[in-house]
Design brief:
- This protein is α/β, with parallel strands linked by helices.
- It is 38% helix and 18% strand.
- The chain is built from 3 helices and 4 strands.
- The protein has a 4-stranded parallel sheet with strand order 1-2-3-4, covered by helices on one side.
- α2 links the parallel β2 and β3.
- The protein is globular, with a radius of gyration of 13 Å.
Amino acid sequence: MAVSMTMIPVLLNLGEKRLVPALREAREKLDSVEGEAVLDFSSVHRIDPSALRAMEEFVGVADDKGIKVVLSGVSVGVYKVLKLAKLAPRFLVTH
């Protein structure tokens, strides 16, 4: 039996400066998502503390709704920051 999951690709190709507003916008779209949300981090090369907080809030809301969050195109540097902040295990990360 195949199960159809709605996925929203949330494109964050706006760079680090727009990451927090983009995550807030993506969080608002989670009500219409089932299964997983894919966030494109290919243009994000560093994360500041406010972005880490926004990511933690985003994944918390997704967890509450049973939605898996996939981070696509994550750089090694961003992944290291997520790991240090103990957020990496809460996401499915692809490089």
